[in-house]
Design brief:
Layout: E1 9-13, E2 18-21, E3 45-48, E4 53-57
Antiparallel strand pairs: 1-4, 2-3
């Protein structure tokens, strides 16, 4: 079962650190990957923080600018499929 969230995650990142954003929606450690995608064709999106800052990471997995939130969640209904359910 996917970990549904129709709002972004505010996360503090550390400059130079590598992060693995969950692209499938199955992770129990959202918004980051915990390996729950295993057995699917979906892979986490890897990014390195450019600076120490807070970022808004996509929770609905439908952003046009992953891993960052672009507001797509505002157009989704709670019963609409997302991430690996699409």
């Amino acid at each position: 079962m996917a970990s549904r969230q129709l709002t972004p995650f505010a996360v503090q990142v550390v400059q130079g650190k590598r992060y693995y954003w969950c692209a499938c929606g199955r992770s129990q450690h959202q918004p980051f990957c915990d390996g729950s995608h295993e057995g699917s064709a979906i892979r986490p999106l890897v990014f390195v923080a450019e600076r120490n800052e807070y970022l808004w990471l996509c929770g609905c997995k439908r952003s046009g600018t992953p891993p960052f939130c672009d507001g797509t969640h505002k157009r989704l209904s709670p019963d609409e499929p997302f991430g690996s359910e699409m």
